[in-house]
Specification:
The complex is a heterodimer.
Chain A: E1 7-9, H1 14-23, E2 28-31, H2 37-42, E3 50-53, E4 63-66, E5 70-74, H3 79-84, H4 86-91, H5 93-101, H6 105-110, H7 113-119, H8 127-132, E6 136-141, E7 144-149, E8 154-156, E9 159-160, E10 167-173, E11 180-187, E12 198-206, E13 212-220, E14 227-228, H9 230-236, H10 243-256, H11 267-290
Parallel strand pairs in A: 1-3, 2-3
Antiparallel strand pairs in A: 4-5, 5-10, 6-7, 6-10, 8-9, 11-12, 12-13, 13-14
Chain B: E1 4-10, E2 13-19, H1 25-32, E3 51-54, E4 57-60, E5 73-75, H2 89-96, H3 106-119, H4 125-131, H5 143-159
Parallel strand pairs in B: 1-5
Antiparallel strand pairs in B: 1-2, 3-4, 3-5
Helix pairs in contact in B: 2-5
Classes of the chains: A alpha+beta, B alpha+beta.
């Protein structure tokens, strides 16, 4: 149960964080909530000699929203903070829902949304809604800053395009236009604590005539990474979807999924639930968008 | 690795300590400060036995490095009541409702309930159950715990007493 020895650095600025990451490049990890990292370290799966804590870095917990610019979630913003944020609840209900039901109260108070993404579990609950909202990550390293689309971020279970020496400074989420509807639905065997067996997130924006201008659908826990569903999205764009098209688009989501059998669910159950949840997500998102949306 | 000097503020008392960076807050509370009310269950953030409040927010002390708690305000079960002779209304309600059986989960349950009531003084039954989602009990079946918290919330609201 004891952890191996390591040194903890507690910098106060992003510049200091980046210096420490560079200096200890061979064996360093960023620490914030610790809810994934410390468990992995205890299990012996990770043994960094240096931990760089983000918990005393000024300004990194900020969540801000501005009309037109959208939402910016600081790299150290807690999951519970994001879930309770009034702008997130009003304009990004799928993300608010993910941040209110995943894990446990304590884990949500400790863990960060950025950490949930960087940990890159296929089941990461914030990933599917953030994919649906078209989010990007702002990654910084010494001497540079780049924006990474979340669709390009995950490369495999636990793997991302983030380079050693880089940190996620913020998550940027575009402002949803008028006549937008969105939501996230997840299923797990137990209603609480449990990791999701299937998660589906959707975002639909309609034009004045009720046709879909933009649709984004994303799946969690049914592929090696959280994934978008380009085939289903293309089927819906330009259409005024009714129940039949919704069912066909959901079937396209099932074709995009690549689920496995594991302790949480079988692959065939997951496929059936992608069909069902995608239909519900599309139906709810469309109703919200037709009602004027967020 | 070099030890680090830290200051913990636990239940209002300040402690100067020198700890290894790899030590968890729960271990320092129990072993160095003798505050054994905080329990270790799963040691991976699932069971909630180690729940404490840090700057008013419930966290798992088994997943919190002691050095990260430096100068943060920590409340453990020992510091919840106004004095060592008193019980907090939540503790009283747990006793009255028989919400304690083996007692191992109780400190964590009560601190999670405190966190809940601090943010939502009049929770519904469902909100109480959600608020306890990170605390496992293997004896009571939860019903008496949920009843106790509902009762405590009503009494605290009626008396206008600050949790």
């Amino acid at each position: 149960m004891a952890l191996p020895n390591f040194q903890v650095h507690q910098p106060k600025t992003v510049e200091e964080v980046l210096d420490l990451l560079g200096r200890h490049r061979s064996s360093v990890k960023l620490l914030c909530g610790g809810t994934d990292l410390l468990i992995k370290m205890r299990a012996g799966a990770q043994a960094p000699e240096h931990l760089v804590s983000l918990n005393r870095v000024a300004g990194l917990k900020t969540i801000s929203y501005a009309a037109g610019d959208g939402l910016v979630i600081g790299g150290a913003a807690r999951i519970s903070q994001v879930g309770k944020n009034p702008d997130v609840q009003r304009l990004y209900p799928g993300l608010a829902h993910a941040c209110s039901v995943m894990a446990t109260v304590q884990i949500r108070n400790m863990g960060t949304v950025a950490g949930n993404l960087v940990n890159a579990a296929p089941s990461a609950d914030t990933a599917a809604p953030l994919l649906a909202y078209g989010a990007s990550l702002v990654a910084v390293e010494r001497g540079g800053r780049r924006q990474i689309k979340l669709t390009d971020f995950f490369t495999g279970p636990g793997l991302t395009v983030l380079e050693p020496g880089e940190m996620v400074e913020a998550i940027r989420v575009p402002d949803p236009p008028p006549r937008t509807g969105s939501c996230y639905l997840r299923l797990s065997a137990r209603s609480k604590v449990d990791i999701a067996a299937v998660g589906v997130a959707g975002f639909i924006n309609l034009d004045l005539s009720g046709k879909v201008i933009r649709c984004r659908l994303a799946l969690g826990s049914v592929a090696p990474t959280p994934v978008r569903c380009p085939e289903a999205e293309a089927m819906l764009e330009g259409q005024d979807p009714g129940p039949e098209l919704i069912a066909r688009a959901a079937a396209a989501c099932v074709r995009t999924s690549r689920p496995i059998d594991d302790l949480r669910a079988t692959a065939s159950y997951r496929r059936a639930m992608v069909q069902e949840l995608a239909q519900r997500v599309l139906t709810q998102s469309l109703a919200m968008a037709r009602g004027g949306g967020s | 690795m070099a030890k680090q000097n830290i200051e913990l503020i636990v239940n209002g008392d300040r402690y100067q300590l020198t700890v290894e960076p790899s030590r968890m807050l729960v271990d320092v509370l129990r072993e160095d400060l003798g505050l054994t009310g905080t329990k270790i269950g799963c040691a991976q953030g699932d069971c909630g036995a180690c729940t404490v409040l840090m700057d008013g927010v419930s966290v798992s002390s088994c997943l919190t490095l002691a050095v990260e708690a430096h100068q943060r305000d920590i409340t453990t079960i020992e510091g919840l009541a106004a004095s060592p002779q008193d019980l907090h209304p939540l503790q009283e309600a747990f006793v009255q409702h028989g919400a304690v059986q083996c007692g191992y989960c109780s400190p964590g349950m009560i601190l999670s309930a405190k966190h809940l009531l601090d943010h939502n003084p009049k929770p519904s039954e469902e909100e109480i159950r959600q608020g306890l989602s990170g605390n496992l009990c293997r004896c009571t079946g939860y019903n008496k715990i949920v009843e106790a918290i509902g009762d405590a919330a009503e009494k605290m609201a009626a008396s206008g007493k600050e949790g």
